[in-house]
Amino acid sequence: MVFRGTLREFIIRLKFLFLPDGEDPDSLVGKEGKAAFEARFESALPLSEYLVAHLEESIDVSHADGKARFVPAEHTGADELPDDGYPFILVTGRLLEHWHTGVMTRRSKALAAIEPEAFADLHEDDATRLGLVEGDWVRVASRRGEIHLAVRIGRRVQPGSIFVPFHYREAGANLLTNPRLDPDGKIPEFKFCAVQVDAAPPPAD
Q1: What's the predicted TM-score (pTM) here?
Q2: Where are the strands (E) in 39-155, listed by range?
Q3: Rounded to whole angstroms, how far apart are CA atoms 88 and 96?
Q4: For 124, phi and psi rounded to 5 degrees?
Q5: Cα(165)–Cα(106) distance, integer angstroms
Q6: How far apart are CA 81 and CA 102, in angstroms?
Q7: H or E segment at 195?
């Protein structure tokens, strides 16, 4: 099977071959049976091979002299920097064990056993100054909202910073983050904002 067409056409066709109408794999297996589902998947593989083989010529950005072009860009700081009222920098991101909002990975017993709940990662110097020990609960608050979660203490983040993964809806990191858009890329500033951090009581059982 050889696929001819644009990259956009490839992506559209792959979507409808493998997961039509936005259905998830489990529902397709239930409707079609395992053998039919595997056949559908196998039919999509040549398209993947096509993409790998022709990606370079499909997205050709080279110049006549074969050299790349570098364009200088002026650095601009974050929209919201720490101050006396919000002295910490919040950094959000992924964990190895989970993906995005965790709608699939948090259903995995093995992965959930490794990272079952939200946490905040704090530098040991900041923890000492705040009177915190491993496992204590903290309130992390920005100008937009606040969340409560247990703290991990170490040297994985820089002093003055706090890391919160965004996989956990019960302590949603993006309740805190800044929706201000980058003027060029139009990407929201979800990875960096100013926050307060202070001790909080653990949740009631």
Answers
A1: 0.63
A2: 88-93, 119-123, 137-141, 146-154
A3: 24
A4: -60, -30
A5: 13
A6: 29
A7: strand 193-200
